[in-house]
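Quick note —
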Amino acid sequence: MIRLKKPELCQSKILDDCIDNIIDSKRRQRLSNLKKEIVELSHSYDCLAEQGKLLGIKGKEISDSYANKGDLLFLYSSKFSKKGELARQYYDKIKLSAPNGKCPQCGQQLVSTLDHYLPKSQYPLLSVVQYNLVPCCYDCNRHKLSQSAKSHTKETMHPYYDDFDDEIWLRAAIIEGKDIAFDFYVCKPEKWSMEKFERVKNHFRVFQLNNIYKPYAAEWAVEESKSLSRLLKKTDKKTVEDDICDRMKDVQSTHKNTWKYAVYKTIFYSEWFWKEYLLML
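Predicted structure written out below.
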């Protein structure tokens, strides 16, 4: 999971560029009537999210005298995210904000879309609120769908507001066999509260990170093991251990919790890896 900088776009300008060229004059007026409320809601969202109280956000109900849910969903699908529309520039800016194009939710796959952190089906007023739009890969977006947490503990990580990279929590268990493989799981850091631990466990479960990491880790570990085996045959175990430690430091220099770091740590302490697997290569 990767922390991102919050978007620094003008929410009022986003709405203007979404609304002003709507052909249907009645729909355009209904949405214009809601502009001030959505801008204020954007500010409330930012403040509440900073305090870890995002579930206190309003937005589920819409006044009958203003735009309806269909109008707000139209705003996102036909103006904000649609290629060729003026407001598409904001969609692209948020999408491109993920470093190296990596999905912040899994930290592995490439961003392909934007995810509504609070689902637009339940919070239509947030459909084009910049702080609610997060770069996301196809799989993470599909796994989350329109899930909405009932409590703060059940919330997944919000890349703009949460820091889950302050301690190491991602672990790997080696699966011994002819073909090396791994299972990934969450371990509670000593300094973390149970609430934070429950949140990272829920994030790990919702985005099915074990299933995402396993195939990448298995393929990568085979190639890494071949390299380590060649080095072991030329030198000694202490030299290979030092090499693994150097690789671990390099991997961890950007993010503490990556599946590569978890794999390195697991093989470093695995007696089976040293005494059996490496010698088979």
